[in-house]
Amino acid sequence: MAVICPHAGYVYSGPVASHAYFRLAQEAFPDVVVILGPSHQAWSSPVAMMDKGEWETPLGRVKIDEKLADKIFKTSGLIDIDEEAHRNEHSIEVQLPFLQYIYGSGFKFIPICMGIQDLEFSRKLGADLGMALKDANAVLIASTDLSHYVPYETAAELDKLVIDTTISLNEEKLQSYVLSEGITMCGYGPVSAILVASKMLGAQKGELLSYKTSGDITGDYSAVVGYSSIVISR
Q1: Which of 24-33, 39-48, 80-89, 118-127 has the lowest mean pLDDT?
Q2: Is 12:225 a contact under the CB 8 Å cutoff?
Q3: Is the Cβ–Cβ distance between 11 and 86 less than 8 Å?
Q4: How far from each other are the two terminal CA atoms of the chain, in whole angstroms?
Q5: Beta bridge partners of 5
Q6: Which pLDDT value is given to residue 42?
Q7: What digits encode the pLDDT tens for the residues 101-122?
Q8: Residue 106 confidence (pLDDT)
Q9: C-alpha gyration radius of the chain
Q10: Cβ contact 138:34 at 8 Å
Q11: 220: exposed, middle or buried (C-beta count within 10 Å: 0-12, 13-18, 19+)?
Q12: Contact yes or no for 148/182 (Cβ under 8 A)
């Protein structure tokens, strides 16, 4: 129904992300994949979506689902059609080669980039997506890394708070921990929105598939970035 994946360089977070895509490969083939990622740019629309065209990776091209994108845009009053917000943003594009590997070229996608990630905004966007996708054969993906550049022990402790609240489908606690504990999770808004939409569409549980840090690759545990793969299902 939905997965949460990291978006760092493949050498760092690819092994963790692969767990989510291995699980997706065992499920029914979707018609469309809706990918939410955070904006890492200094400027961005509050919510930026591309509603037409295609994206190209070394594995080929993937078309945007124009009909469903138009439905999402008309359902939600939060979304801007903004191609420029995606031009230099990596959080969504790094997911596409995984999807192309497991699905080939027979799926379409919708990219949505969040510049504002607070609880109220994320809940509204999630509710809008839930309404727009209720009759769609869709998979939802939230793209996020967890703690950034903290000692491993700190990352493991803080990231567990994020993971536990995510698999319990509690976007309010997730956002509360991010704010109160100063957790440098970059995509808490996309995760919150995905949780809301998934619950509207019948989600009942979450499951952690993998958790690692950059230190597991580099051997440097003094300042790590955390990565997790989580699946949300009925």
Answers
A1: 39-48
A2: yes
A3: no
A4: 7
A5: 143
A6: 61
A7: 999 988 999 999 999 999 999 9
A8: 85
A9: 16
A10: yes
A11: exposed
A12: no
Residues pairing with 143 in the sheet:
5
Rounded Cα–Cα distance for residues 119 and 215 (Å):
31
Q: Give the CA angle between residues 42, 170, 49 to the nearest 5°.
A: 35
* CB 213 within 8 Å of CB 157: no
Q: Which helix (H) or strand (E) holds 66?
A: helix 66-75
Which domain does 34 fall in, by range? 2-233
Q: How far apart are CA 73 and CA 76, in angstroms?
A: 5
Q: What is the CATH number of the domain that holds 25?
A: 3.40.830.10
Q: Report how many domains make up the chain.
A: 1
Q: Which residues pair with 61 in a beta bridge?
A: 56
- The burial class, CB within 10 Å (0-12 / 13-18 / 19+), for 67 is exposed
Q: Would you state the structure tokens that stand for residue 28, as one six-digit string?
A: 């029914």
- Residue 68, number of CB atoms within 10 A of its CB: 21
Q: With pLDDT > 70 as the criterion, what percentage of the chain qualifies?
A: 99
